[in-house]
Amino acid sequence: MDFYRYNGLGNDYLVMDPQKTEFKVDGNSAKVICDRHFGEGSDGILFGPLFDDEGVIGLKIFNPDGSLAEKSGNGTRIFARYLVDEGYVTGEKPFKFNTDGGMVSAHVIDKKEKIKMGMGQASFQSTKIPATGESREMVNEKLMVKGSELTVSCVSMGNPHCVVPLEDISSDLAHELGPLIETHPLFPNRTNVQFLKVLDRNNIQIEIWERGAGYTLASGSSSCAAASVAVKLGLIDRQVTVHMPGGTLAIDMDEEFNVNMTGPVAFVSKGYLAEELRELF
Ligand SMILES: N[C@@H](CCC[C@H](N)C(=O)O)C(=O)O
Q1: I need a surface site. Which of 132, 194, 220, 221 has the fewest CB within 10 A?
Q2: Are residues 103 and 140 in the same domain?
Q3: Complex ipTM
Q4: Which key words tag this protein in UniProt (predicted)?
């Protein structure tokens, strides 16, 4: 089998397992495969499990533009389910695997409805995100975009995020400002962008522009980032439901900003890539 298609709240990924496909996915093939019109189409590729010398499971995450993502919330939840579905782990007790953005833990409570991921610690440090300029916590910074001054807060969940709290948010706004913030010179590795509206102390709403993927219906690491920023700004409690166009995720965090994310995963299909698609990479 070349791929297994899953989604988390409409954020869809192809798991490509080196044990089951002859492909070694790279940036070039990821771009061709993820193309919605000329390829199989997806918001990214989860290439794994990759085993190190100690047998620790690793995962490489590719964006549809071919770039590597250090971490993904929906991607790691999906991968956790895949590991259970294909018998790599029983899922009876919590397990861990490695991403380029650090170790994550998975607790498969119900593989369709409720997978809880320990996503690691949120950091507001500019050097970790990374962002240019002196080393600092990136909270309530001014950012000029398209002639307007935005107030943003930035956070690393292993991957970079820039959160823009606003009274009103929309998918149009995400399409308009998202790409400009993603590629702003402040962010040498580009950034994911979240437009955040606080609904009450336990509910927030976000619109997402993902680095290397564009507008998506949901993002797990974005949910963790937006909730962390809202907590840091004192706007919400440490347990919150994040509302996105694709559905909701539950986020909670401790005093040190160690963040958990809980949500569903859906299995859609599995299949093979055509010989003539392979000829394109
Ligand atoms: N959809 C993901 C985020 C995927 C990675 C992101 N595009 C990046 O480049 O960091 C999620 O659910 O977190």
Answers
A1: 132
A2: no
A3: 0.99
A4: Amino-acid biosynthesis, Cytoplasm, Isomerase, Lysine biosynthesis
